[in-house]
Write a structure and sequence with these properties.
Layout lengths: L2 E3 L6 E3 L3 E2 L13 H13 L5 E2 L8 H9 L16
Parallel strand pairs: 3-4
Antiparallel strand pairs: 1-2
Helix pairs in contact: 1-2
Length: 85
């Protein structure tokens, strides 16, 4: 996995981000929860360090699924990344 420095910080994040909009269902058809959590875990196992989710994705369903997938994995949620590009 390729990693990049996040703006002016000392943080490095994966060049690939897991996009979690579709797993929320609303407007996208969704995914089975088990399949979605397995996909998130598989991406983490392969070095992905960031997940794009938001309260609007599936009206909160995406965030619930991401939370289930991250049980036992140290993680933080960052709502806004300003001046990071």
């Amino acid at each position: 996995m390729e990693y990049r420095q996040l703006g002016d910080s000392n943080l490095k994040v994966s060049a690939i981000t897991f996009g979690a909009w579709a797993i929320g269902g609303w407007m996208w058809g969704g995914a089975e929860r088990k399949d979605a959590t397995e996909a998130i875990r598989a991406s983490i196992d392969r070095g992905v360090t960031s997940i794009d989710t938001a309260p609007i994705y599936g009206q909160g369903t995406s965030e619930e699924i991401v939370g289930e997938a991250l049980v036992g994995i140290p993680a933080i949620k960052c709502r806004y990344l300003l001046n990071s590009v």
